[in-house]
Design brief:
The chain has about 120 residues and is of the alpha+beta class. It has a single domain, classed as Beta Polymerase, domain 2 (2-Layer Sandwich), CATH 3.30.460. The chain is built from 5 helices and 6 strands. It has a 6-stranded mixed beta sheet. α1 crosses α2. It is globular.
Length: about 120
């Protein structure tokens, strides 16, 4: 599986569940932990959980890919889904603002979401 294809499927799943402020960072040159971070915001814990669940189901059904690690699901404030080369981080607005991963990983190029949502 090419990581960018995984990213595209994840971004489409987030968009379908009305996730907001989707950001994709290409972090492969800065770290060995992953190639991409996909970051988005859900307005509430139920929405962040719904986004996470939908990503998992979509990847299992469409690509036969299963999450390696899942963190934060019980509280829903910051949910992390680890797919190896791609790490998904789903925040409630307050947590996203506080942790500000885009600033922390500011040297990483952002991939335009419009390129990923094209059919």
């Amino acid at each position: 599986m090419v990581p960018i294809e995984l990213v595209k499927t994840i971004v489409k799943a987030i968009d379908e569940k009305k996730g907001q402020a989707i950001t994709v960072l290409d972090i492969h040159a800065q770290t060995g932990i992953a190639d991409y971070f996909v970051i988005c915001t859900g307005n509430s814990a139920p929405q962040t959980k719904a986004i996470a669940d939908f990503i998992e189901v979509t990847l299992e059904n469409q690509m036969d890919i299963h999450v390696l690690r899942r963190e934060g699901f019980q509280t829903g404030s910051w949910i992390l889904l680890d797919y190896g080369a791609v790490v998904v981080q789903i925040f409630k607005p307050e947590e996203r603002e506080y942790y500000n991963l885009e600033k922390l990983w500011g040297d990483s190029p952002q991939i335009p979401i419009s390129d990923l949502l094209e059919v």
